Amino acid sequence: MESLMSCSVNHMYEFVGFTGTESEEQHLRHLGLTEGTILHIIAKPDQQSLIIFFRQTRLGLDASIADKIKVVPKGVSALSSAIPLSETSIGQTTRVVKLLGTGSVKRRLMDMGLTKGTVITVRKYAPMGDPIEVTVRNYELTLRKAEAEMILVEKGGA
């Protein structure tokens, strides 16, 4: 178990506890940070703050709070090399790493066959980049750019 402030960027951790005051802990719970929550550290702009991503929420924390958040490593994140589907080039084959959407948006993407590990090949981009035509599970699918930005992929999915 280590403090969140001592963790590395682009890695995932599981929240296991908090050593601060009851009011600080309650505030974090209201934000959705509960035991078992998976955190992804997005950035550490300096040694006094960091930005984390959990439950479709980005949160900036200063060192005084981050030092009190206790986590365990969730392994080296595949997200470190992941890029949004909208940033891939035509003809590129990728594999889904994570869906960032929530609720009905995530469910809709999953209903279309976009689940973790699915191979996607980008076929065409419209002139302004929206929509994007892809091949998923041997059928053609058209996605809006906003939807494609919610799909994190890694290169070389074939």
TrEMBL record:
Q: Which residues cross the membrane?
A: none
Q: What InterPro entries does the record point to?
A: Fe-transptr_FeoA-like (IPR007167), FeoA (IPR052713), FeoA_core_dom (IPR038157), Transcriptional_repressor_C (IPR008988)
Q: Which residues form the Ferrous iron transporter FeoA-like domain?
A: 2-73, 83-155
- Write down the Gene3D superfamilies for this protein, in alphabetical order: 2.30.30.90
> What keywords were assigned to this record?
Iron
| Pfam families per UniProt | FeoA
For this entry, the protein name equals: Ferrous iron transport protein A
This chain's source organism reads Vagococcus silagei
- Phylogenetic placement of the source organism: Bacteria, Bacillati, Bacillota, Bacilli, Lactobacillales
